[in-house]
Amino acid sequence: MPLFRKAPSDMPEVDFDHLPAHVAIIMDGNGRWAKRRGLPRTAGHAAGAETFRTIATYAKEIGLDYLTVYAFSTENWKRPAEEVSAIMGLLKKYLLEAIEKMERDRVKMEFFGDLSPLHPELRELCERTREISKRYEGCQVNICLNYGGRDEITRAVREIAAQWMQQGREPEEITEEDISRRLFSGGIPDPDLIIRPSGEVRTSNFLLWQSAYSEYYFTDVLWPDFSKEELLRAIADYQHRSRRYGGV
Ligand code: FPP
Predict the structure, then answer these.
(1) Mean pLDDT across the stretch 61-66?
(2) Where in the sequence numbering do the catalytic residues fall?
(3) Which of the 8 DSSP states describes residue 118?
(4) Mind listing the pLDDT tens digit for each residue in 84-129?
(5) What Cα–Cα distance (Å) separates residue 238 from each residue in 65, 161, 206, 219?
(6) How far is Cα 182 from Cα 160, in angstroms, rounded to an integer?
(7) CA angle 19, 110, 230 (to 5 degrees)
(8) Which residue, judged by its Cα, is nearest atom 3 of ligand 1?
C-alpha cells in the first residue's frame, strides 16, 4: 500500500460493521488554505474549526468509539502571539457553542495535554465541557491541547520514578502498561488509524507512544477542505490493509 495517496475521485466503500475503534487526526493545512485565498492565517483556523465540528459529529454518527484531534501542540506557542490567541479564541468560541449544543449533539469530549498554562477562562471551559459530556454515550472526542508526545512520556516517567523511589521498587518492575496508563490517553485503546491531511508526511510529536502499531493515512487535501467523504476514504483505505503487529 503506498504511503502517500492522492484522493481518488470514486466514492469509498466502507465496511461499517468493522470500523477502526479509534481514529486520530493531525488537523494540518489551515494556514496554506487561507494563504491560497489571500486570507489571514486565522481565517484558515476558523475554517478548520468548522471542519472539526463536522468531522466530530460525523464520527459519532457512523459509530467510531474514539476520535482524537491535534489542536495545539507544546511547540505551537512559538507562533506569533496574535495567531496563538486566535486559535485559543476559536477554542473558546467552539467550546461555548459546544456546551450549548451538547444537549443536541451529545458529543463526549476529553482533553489531552497540560491545560495549566491556558487562560483560566479557557481552562475552566474545558473542565466544564469534560464534566457535562461525561454522561454522554457514543464517540469520545479527545482534543489535544498544549499536547506533545515527548512531554506526555516524560511526565509518565517522572511519575513512575517518584512512585518507585517512594516505594523502594526495582526499575525492572516497570512495565509498558505502567507507562501506558499514565499517559493522557490512559485507559483508551491506541489509535488504529492516524490521518494527516495537507501533504506533510511526519508525525510531529503526536501520540508517539500510542502510535506504535497505528496505520497512517496521508492525503494532500488541506484540513479546512477535509470532508466526511475524505474520512470515509481514509477508513476504506485502512480496511484494505493487513495489520500484523510485528508478526507474519
Ligand atoms: C495546523 O495548521 C493547525 C493548527 C496548529 C491549529 C488547529 C486548530 C484548529 C483546527 C482550530 C481550533 C480547534 C478546535 C478543536 C475547535 P497550520 O496552521 O500549521 O497550517 P499550515 O501548515 O498550512 O501553515
Answers:
(1) 96
(2) 28, 76
(3) S
(4) 999 999 889 888 887 777 667 788 999 999 999 999 999 999 999 8
(5) 16, 38, 19, 13
(6) 8
(7) 40
(8) 28
Once rounded to an integer, what is the mean pLDDT over residues 188-193? 98
Q: Which atom of ligand 1 is nearest to the CA of 70?
A: 7
Which atom of ligand 1 lies nearest, measured to the CA of 29? 23
- pLDDT for the residue numbered 246: 81
Mutate to test the pocket of ligand 1, among 25, 45, 76, 84 (most ligand atoms within 8 A of CB): 45
d(CA 20, CA 139): 12
Q: Residue whose CA is closest, atom 1 of ligand 1?
A: 28
Residues contacting residue 44 through CB under 8 Å, at least 6 positions apart: 29, 30, 31, 32, 33, 34, 35, 224
Q: Is the CB of 91 under 6 A from ligand 1?
A: yes
Identity at 228, one-letter amino acid code: K
